[in-house]
Amino acid sequence: MTASVANRNPACRPDADLDQLRQTASAILASLHRIIVGQQHVVESVLWAVLLQGHVLLEGVPGLGKTVLMSSLGQVLGLSASRVQFTPDLMPADIIGTRMLEQDERGNVSFTFEKGPVFTQVLLADEINRATPKTQSALLEAMQERRVTVGGVTHVLPRPFLVMATQNPLEQEGTYPLPEAQLDRFLFKLIVRFPTELELIEIARRTLMSPDQQAKIEPVTNAEELVRWGHLLQGLPIPTEVLQYASALILATHPDQKRVDPKLASWIRYGASPRGLQALLKAGRLRAVLKGRDIVTRDDINEVALPCLRHRVLLSFEAESEGITPDRVVEEIVRRMRA
After folding, report:
1. Which tens digits make up the pLDDT trace of 36-91?
2. Which domains are delineated in the chain?
3. What is the pTM of this model?
4. 224 vs 35, 77, 157, 241, CA distance in Å?
């Protein structure tokens, strides 16, 4: 479906690079769907996050294949992957690493840095809301800065670096919900739905196969290409009209703006931040490219609004008491913007 990594010409023209990006993205999705049953939007969005070098928060009950998706993604992208199960007794050093005191053969004592599991390219932070705020902050700082500092020494994380964090929406006891400012570090928030009956049957069929019958995944790309495509996407221009539209969409999430309908404003406690605008534009630009266009449109922005903004719009007590969800608020805002 796509040329091998070794045969690709790194000096391709930008339009040729974009064609290569589209072909490789299709090949990656085809490989992942040989392993993952259903969850098409989740799989596609996670791939988008990798291409955009952003992080993803997945919300769903246990057992829906999030760990399998992470390991499969690492294999097909040729990236290293690791998993951390977050618990209340997990410490920051368990995530980022710590300094160890070592003694050599001559008796000389020195400190060496023992890297933690964050030094990988795809990290699954399982049930992130079970760790204390101190440990959550250590991970989220690494996500933002792409480096960690221990003992006054800065250590750069591998590139690309993607965190897939999960949280269980059903259990509240013994959890530490992520603060709003930390939720803002995630490019997307995705809802992992429960499989349909046909999907359950297919999951059972695939998982009960003997190991030699199960689908095998081969690398389709590598870290160097992913980073190069990230730089290429950053260089694509965005029309002024689309930039203004995306900015208006962000302002429409703020209840203190005069243009916001009073009923809608009563549902919102606080709206999306400038990071939300950046997420909209990045994701909209990638959607346009993968659809075969080099021009971003309003429709691109509208289509990515839900994963970009659902975790950035904070609901009022009135909305929560009425059973209003962030998804409904974002969808209503987009509907009114389209009108």
Report:
1. 887 888 888 988 998 898 899 998 877 777 778 877 888 888 888 888 888 888 88
2. 5-87+120-129+153-227 (3.40.50.300), 236-338 (1.10.8.80)
3. 0.84
4. 25, 10, 15, 33
